[in-house]
Amino acid sequence: xxxxxxxxxxxxxxxxxxxxxxxxxxxxxxxxxxxxxxxxxxxxxxxxxxxxxxxxxxxxxxxxxxxxxxxxxxxxxxxxxxxxxxxxxxxxxxxxxxxxxxxxxxxxxxxxxx
Length: 114
Ligand code: AMP
Ligand code: ZN
Fold this sequence. Notes:
By secondary structure, the chain is an alpha+beta fold. It has helices spanning about 5-10, 60-75, and strands at about 20, 25-30, 35-45, 80-85, 100-105. Bound molecules: adenosine monophosphate (AMP) and zinc ion.
């Protein structure tokens, strides 16, 4: 996808602080962390947001959640807990228009989110 930041990271045309990858997903540290642990779990395939997924493409979401649990354990967030966030569209806070989930942990969280 032309000029998509996360496609560039997936295709190694841009740097990232890589934590994990497999055939479907890449995980790297957020450049502007909002918690002691703030990882981005990014689909390797470009979709603008989850509204773009066809009915038969939702396995990527289950896979991202499975990797999120693996990362939560790796970063020792499983005892105290963590937050897994997906911002869909601009009004919800989406700034990079390529499907990703935020994994945040290591501090007390507030609710409701701003
Ligand atoms: P969202 O606002 O939900 O679309 O999330 C996009 C996230 O990408 C933000 O938390 C940014 O801090 C993060 N971000 C932007 N550019 C980079 C980058 N080059 N490397 C790592 N994270 C980035
Ligand atoms: Zn992309």
